[in-house]
Amino acid sequence: MKNIYSVTKEDLEAYFLEKNEKKFKAIQIFEWLYQKRENNIENWSNIKKETKEKLIQDFAFDMPEIIKREQDQLTEKYLIKLNDQEHIEAVLMRHDYGNSVCVSSQVGCNMGCAFCESGRLKKIRNLETYEMVCQILLIEELIKERISSVVIMGIGEPLDNYDNVINFIKIINDAKGIAIGARHITLSTCGLIPKIKELSNLPLQINLAISLHASNNELRNQLMNVNKMYNIVDLINTIKDYIDKTNRRVTIEYVMLNNINDGIANAKELADLLKGMNIYVNLIPYNETNHLEFKKSTKEQILKFYDTLKKNKINVTIRKEFGSKISAACGQLRSKEVKPDTSSKK
Ligand code: SAH
Q1: Is the CB of 160 under 6 A from ligand 1?
Q2: Domain check: are 11 and 111 in the same one?
Q3: Structure confidence by residue, pLDDT tens digits, 221-232
Q4: DSSP per position, 302-334
Q5: How many domains are there within the chain?
Q6: Would you state the torsion angle of the CA atoms of residues 112, 113, 117, 122, taken in this order, to the nearest 10 degrees?
Q7: Rounded to the nearest whole angstrom, what is the distance from the C-alpha of residue 63 to the centroid of ligand 1?
Q8: Where does the pLDDT of residue 114 fall: very low under 50, low under 70, confident under 90, or very high at 90 and above?
């Protein structure tokens, strides 16, 4: 049975029309779920009994549960137990401009990036829309504060769970839903070309971030399996088309791995690749994990890389480091909880 938090307002309107009821009921229900935050349908005072009975028959109302909270000054990390006992994680980051949450889109991930902890634990399943929506609802309820921006950069490849992720974005973006502006929502992908094309046709003004992490095919093949399917040249061309079509600036993410991809020659090669595009590069200091051998680049190397891009007229920023003390790097909290060999069997 579909969970009520998986349903977009448009789908709920269609549901009511089909039941010969007025479609504005969808708005009333969205108000209970997302404005009054009332999960108990018994308390929906302006909804009549027969409608409630239909809803209870047709939808599930249960939510996942936060079972662990780790925090440092600016970051909190949550381990969330889903209704089938699987675990995911979400991270809250406090910025001077507001709270942002990094949500997971899958249980595990199949993309197999060499440096990433999430990929060590293979994908078990996609998250349902409600399991993403509830990451926001549960955190807001716990911290009693509003979340002003969302990054889909947690565990999983969002474009490998396209429909559920798009519905998630529609619900959190809906003015009657959680009402987070599209410009405050960022989707990060390792580069699934057909899905990036599909995304460019949607009338959603969200931000797109591409995990590039390498300046040529040889290097990217070593770091990211996905490059063997969708290579860097085709990916860059796809991003160019995306920018043309949407008129939106795209973020290029580049994780700084010591002596792997952080040389000046790589910076120059990257600048050539991105020349003239409406993008900016976000350099990400690598978050070291216990299980993988990669090391983070030195501060000096990151700055040299940064300067080289700047000199070559590429917009570039260095990402502020969050949560390295509380295992906030992708997949680390979940991987403490779940043994890789048991989770990869399915
Ligand atoms: N699958 C999507 C989104 C999840 S990963 C994607 O690939 O974009 C979010 C980002 O974190 C990606 O850029 C990923 O490459 C990066 N990442 C993974 N492990 C990391 C680590 N240990 N330190 C820093 N960034 C990491």
Answers
A1: no
A2: no
A3: 999 999 999 999
A4: HHHHHHHHHHTT--EEEPPP--GGGT-STTHHH
A5: 2
A6: -10
A7: 27
A8: very high
Enter the pTM of the model: 0.93
Can you read off the two tokens belonging to residue 97? 């401009």
Token pair 């795209």 in the structure block, residue: 250
Residue 327 beta carbon below 6 angstroms from any ligand 1 atom: no
Where helices occur in the chain by DSSP H, the ranges are 9-18, 25-30, 49-58, 129-143, 162-173, 193-200, 217-223, 226-229, 232-246, 264-274, 299-311, 332-337, 340-343
256 in the same domain as 237: yes
- Nearest partner of 51 among 81, 76, 78, 29, judged by Cα: 29
Per the CB < 8 A criterion, the answer to whether 314 and 281 are in contact is yes
Domain extent for 227: 65-337
172 CA distance to ligand 1 middle (Å): 22
CATH of the domain at 33: 1.10.150.530
Supply 19's token pair: 């039941």
pLDDT (tens digit per residue) in 290-331: 888 999 999 999 999 999 999 999 999 998 776 565 555 555
Query: For residue 206, what is the DSSP state?
Result: -
